[in-house]
Amino acid sequence: MLRLPDFNYIRPRSLKEAVKVLADLGPEAMAVAGGTDVYPKMKRGQFTPRHLVSLKFLKELRGIRPGTKDGMWIGAGETLTAVSRNGAVNKLFPALAHAAGLVSTPQLRNMGTIGGNVFVDTRCNYYDQTFFWRQAAGFCIKKDGDICLVAPKSKFCLAVFSSDTAPVLCSLGAVANFFGPGGLRRVPFEECYRDDGINFLTKKNDEVLKGILIPRASFGQRNVYLKLRRRGSFDFPILGVAAATSLDREGICRSARVVLTGVASAPKAVTEAAPILEGKKISKEAIEAVAEAAAKVSHPVDNADMDYWYRKRMTKVYVKRALAQLAGLELEPEAGARAAGE
Ligand SMILES: Cc1cc2nc3c(=O)[nH]c(=O)nc-3n(C[C@H](O)[C@H](O)[C@H](O)COP(=O)(O)OP(=O)(O)OC[C@H]3O[C@@H](n4cnc5c(N)ncnc54)[C@H](O)[C@@H]3O)c2cc1C
Ligand code: SF4
Known about the structure:
By secondary structure, the chain is an alpha+beta fold. It has 12 helices and 12 strands.
């Protein structure tokens, strides 16, 4: 049985105190919310913080408020169960409720928070192993080593960004509200990430996500999230497709965003979706063109479940399914593809 190493557990009474403690203790301190990513990684020696600063009991991080002046507010400390079951989230943003409800297992969703989910560590078959396994295989640059075992010539780590909810928030134009030593900072979710398996977050270590704002402009948009994984019971996504569109009364597409997860070290926006889809009715030909564009920006490598070429091929299939669902179109079934996207 793997055991947790020794560490100091700090339980601040306010968000202000949490940020001060994180700033004072520096890189040896780490925030923990539900702990469903942090604690297993400490047991496996992937995370080695001396101090854990708990966000679990902070009232400032709680609450789901659908009717604020600026849009819907979701406290970062809300559990994935709470987000997936919230009536307003289900009504306005079914993609988000669905994505939150597909994360891991019921027990982990009861503990895991949406704040922890959007910052969950990147994944790789050579890294998500016990210390002893990694020691025997040889360490890699993400932790303790100096070579990438997947692509030895790569100077960068190619670990995979695998959050289910982050691509949905990017597709909905959501804004991250950080509280740090300098006060509040608002950052669009798509600017919270960079395509680097080690430094995949743009936020600083002493910044805490207070909450998520989904702007009013996104109310009324059609939105969907499809997830590919081996086991339907629980598994990280090896591909996720989030799509959001707004259609006017005549069915003309006024805005369109498609964002992928599980295919790079950050959520990957398919920037061609907007110019291809906007200003006209969504057709099968346009959907095909967006799916082609998505397959071009999807770069899975051989470090996650299932073959990387299959995951790349399924990008096209899942993007087509997601957009067809939003447009109310029926597509021909693809040979060799999985029957249904979750
Ligand atoms: C068996 C298993 C299966 C899983 N399956 C999935 C899956 O299918 N999809 C998926 O997306 N995830 C999955 N996970 C990962 C994890 O359970 C979820 O991502 C969960 O939402 C993490 O939330 P948490 O509150 O437990 O985060 P923690 O473990 O507490 O923290 C995760 C990271 O976020 C940071 N953090 C947390 N809250 C904040 C905040 N408010 N401000 C700033 N930083 C913060 C922490 O410092 C840490 O770096 C799985 C985990 C396990 C063990
Ligand atoms: S992609 Fe390479 S460096 Fe990154 S975790 Fe995997 S083996 Fe390590």
